[in-house]
Amino acid sequence: MRTSKAAGADLVEIRVDLLAEDERNNWKTILDQKLLPVIVTNRASWEGGSAPDDEFARFAILSSAILAGADYVDIEFAAFDEFKRYIASQNSSVISRIILSHHNFERALTLEEIRTIYEKMVGKGADICKIAMATTSARDNAVIFQALREASRRPLVLIAMGELGQCSRILAPKFSSFLTFSCVGHGRESAPGQVSTEALINLYRFRSLSPSTRVFGVIGDPVLHSMSPALHNASFGNAGIDAVYVPLRVNDDVPAFIRSMILFGFDGFSVTIPGKVAALKAMDEVDNVTAKIGAMNTVVTLSDGRLRGYNTDWIAAISAIEDALTDNNQSFHGARVLCLGAGGAARGLVFGAVARGASHVVVANRTLSKAQELANDVGSCASAVSYDALLRADAGQTASDRNQMDTQSRDADSSAEDRMLSFDVVMNTTSIGMHPRTEETPLSSEALRRMGRPLVFDAVYNPLQTKLLLEAEELGCICVSGLEMFVRQAAEQFKLWFPKLEPNVSLMRSVVTERLANK
Ligand code: ATR
Description:
The protein is α/β, with parallel strands linked by helices. It is built from 22 helices and 21 strands. The strands form four sheets. A seven-stranded mixed beta sheet has the order 18-17-16-15-19-20-21. A six-stranded parallel beta sheet has the order 1-2-3-4-5-6. A six-stranded mixed beta sheet has the order 10-9-11-13-14-12, with helices on both faces. The longest helix is centred in the middle third of the chain and has 16 residues. The protein binds 2'-monophosphoadenosine-5'-diphosphate (ATR).
């Protein structure tokens, strides 16, 4: 109770059924010293709880909670009639407010089912109605938001359980849910998907959320590790914007999710792996570069409700590299570039480097066909090589080894081997070297030396100083960290969502640096 109060909770739920045996016998002492209003719940096993299977013993605890002054008592809707008979048989009356609850741990409920249960609960005299359901798709949140919008007869608490439904917990004030359940800390959740009270208040600025709050979020799977909520919420708070940014784990149809959420006041999204290509299908329009790259990371809702997709990843990375080149009196113009990887990030970087004037880009990828596809899409100033062949060449092996390199080039004048030897810019877009495999590097120090000490950009930002960057720095290469790309892609998103405001880039940078340092 003390911890919850210190964290900023408004009221505390005592789950009698979850207390240890010794605590269960004298749980009322908690009520005697209560620091906050209290909900007493003694959840039946047939409703997902842990109370022993003796309904009368269960009711007796709730009845004594009422006598002891509990502010709210939670009773399962299915047991309410029997509970009322029990109370009458004890010649006592209910003075606490009654929360009638219904849980479905098996599946998500339909809107029609929620409406029916709610009406029945109101009819039975609930003071507050609570309905919690399992979530199989992130789109189940739309059902929750719609049902909350409609509920006007009694306060309603509506929860989509699990990580897929986490935004329904965070956004409770936006949709006028009577309350939301949070936990005192990581690992102390009493139901799946709960957020800590501290995170609700400090990270999501729960106190300032209201029906007029604009909602943004990051779509991905997984997404809980994402630093985007910390970065964007801090930035919204700093700019005094009435908006919140939530993690949105989407494990199925990304376009359908986007379409369903914009009906409920979602104004924009970031999109991360693996949804960057699929999200394009939900867009009414995309800018030319994004269409060429074939992957996007930003959704903007236009004033007429249409959706516009952007890719701010490539601008972020290319501008970070360009700034570092400029600082050293160099430029992309005429540069020879090596790109490691051929996924979504690589596509943006390769198109970007060519657009900025690179004379040739070699795409090296584990799966050669993907590198070839990207090089083909870019045209004559790009060629492909398998990552293995590149590593063999890196190892400084013989010319015959290098001749085995499987390259594809449209540039008949220069051999693939020559192009492999020196580079002005090396960009790593693979996950090699990322936490926890921090001892790995996509290119050896020796290879970097052989390549002529190029500028090295690493899209990996966890850790901030990857082995690749560390060794490059030791060699005297110019280094650009993935942090710069991450911060700048977010700053570009901010500009797209709030065209009249300037992002506070140094705040964004310090939020991410601090988070990484505390990991
Ligand atoms: P992103 O959108 O961040 O680019 P992605 O599309 O999944 O993510 O691409 C990841 C890239 O890193 C791919 O080019 C991948 O190689 P494959 O196309 O062969 O899958 C590359 N990659 C990931 N892990 C790798 C590893 N251990 N060794 C070599 N390449 C790797």
